[in-house]
Specification:
Elements: H1 2-38, H2 43-49, H3 51-71, H4 73-92, H5 100-132, H6 138-193, H7 207-210, H8 215-235, H9 238-245, H10 251-275, H11 286-307, H12 312-341, H13 347-376, H14 378-396
Length: 412
């Protein structure tokens, strides 16, 4: 009972710190996107602003998992949050009198630091769930993963909205300082309350030994690349620009809708374990296969509705609401599976490799979002998303049965 209470306390501390970080991450993304769109940047140029942010995540999630296994999750969680504080303070130093090219380069560089911070914090927080969950408690693990991931996404949506509110109330510099103070409080709390050796392993593994250790993790990672690439190909640049330019929404309305979508997505993600049958007697990989193919149909239905004469606001908003529900279920199942497949002694490294794949998907989706939308519009973005989702579900068919345990040797 005492061990269980300790695990719950540590989970609460990690989740609270992750929440503080997530609020600023959502707010910062919306601030940068809307600010530079107002300056007249094209969709593809907007996508380029986030390239370093996403690219940094590929390296960070991979190396961050190895680093966490050596120095402990407490150290990497705190480091990620302190880097975000530094990025926010650096961005507050941006001066409007600088040459335009210098301003853009500076923001891209700061975004790179923020990308490192985001993925270092995410790997640490999600790995910590596996560490603090009581042994053999798969139901608890599923619920805790869904709760952290779902609440994170809901709060990221709040962050989209909060960024606009803080900007209006405090101004650009004041908003950034307020966000920096929030993240700093979370970092101090995690440093003070978490055990120092959490997630640290005795055996020191080389990076090359960790890339293909688990066949299950490799397969799931490929499916994750395609899943999140499919989301971001329409969500990151195409949707907000479409809402503003085609539907004529204000920046505040765009931010509010994006916030509501992500909040709703997070709520569904948190609730997924309640309506998906779960237990040691079931193959937990099956939902990733069945729900994946169902998800791949939703972007196609939006395109069909648009071409059939349904009004654009109704087709897009209703269709993306359905997409959000299905995507949240798939994402929750994936987030559980990576911890179910991960080796206890290498959980941070396995999770790091998996979220490096996640970052690759986001990077590809971000670039495609700007490029495809600029060349062919939102419908093309949705069709590309459908193809990527169908491919993701097809890859997931190769996932091993979780009732048999994840194979330790790679055949990938």
């Amino acid at each position: 009972m005492a061990a269980s209470r300790t695990g719950l306390r540590d989970f609460s501390v990690v989740t609270g710190a992750y929440w503080a970080f997530t609020l600023t991450d959502g707010a910062l993304r919306m601030l940068v996107l809307l600010h530079f769109h107002a300056l007249g940047y094209s969709p593809f140029q907007l996508a380029l602003l986030f390239v370093l942010y996403e690219a940094a995540g590929v390296i960070t999630t991979l190396s961050g998992g190895v680093l966490a296994s050596r120095v402990g999750l407490k150290a990497t969680l705190s480091l990620g949050m302190l880097l975000q504080v530094a990025a926010l303070l650096m961005l507050s130093a941006l001066a409007v009198e600088w040459p335009k090219a210098l301003q853009v380069a500076y923001v891209v560089g700061v975004q790179g630091i923020s990308g490192i911070a985001k993925d270092l914090t995410k790997v640490s927080a999600k790995s910590a769930i596996k560490v603090v969950t009581p042994a053999e408690a798969s139901g608890t693990l599923f619920r805790w993963v869904a709760l952290m991931t779902g609440s994170k996404n809901a709060l990221k949506g709040v962050g989209f909205f909060l960024g606009g509110v803080l900007l209006a109330a405090l101004g650009f510099e004041g908003a950034l300082w307020a966000m920096a103070a929030t993240v700093l409080a979370g970092a101090v709390g995690s440093l003070a309350m978490l055990p120092g050796g959490m997630g640290k392993v005795k055996a020191k593994k080389k990076l090359a030994q960790l890339l293909s250790r688990s066949r299950a993790v490799n397969i799931l990672s490929v499916a994750r690349v395609l899943l999140f690439g499919a989301r971001d190909v329409w969500f990151v640049v195409a949707l907000p620009v479409f809402l503003h330019d085609v539907l004529g929404w204000s920046f505040a309305e765009v931010g509010a809708y994006m916030a509501l979508w992500v909040i709703g997505y997070g709520i569904v993600q948190s609730a997924t374990p309640r309506f998906l049958k779960h237990g040691p007697e079931r193959n937990e990989a099956r939902p990733a296969q069945l729900w994946g193919f169902l998800l791949s149909l939703s972007p196609v239905l939006i395109v069909i509705a648009l071409r059939s004469g349904v009004s654009a606001p109704l087709a897009v908003l209703a269709g993306l609401a359905i997409f959000g529900v299905l995507f949240a279920i798939n994402s929750a199942v994936h987030s559980y599976l990576i911890l179910a497949y991960a080796d206890d002694e290498q959980v941070s490294a396995n999770v790091g490799f998996y979220y490096a794949a996640n970052a690759v998907g986001r990077l590809a989706g971000t670039l495609l979002s700007g490029l495809v939308y600029q060349l062919h519009g939102l419908q093309a973005c949705l069709l590309v998303a459908a193809l990527m989702l169908a491919a993701s579900a097809t890859v997931a068919l190769a996932l091993p049965d979780t009732r048999q345990g994840a194979p330790s040797e790679s055949a990938a």
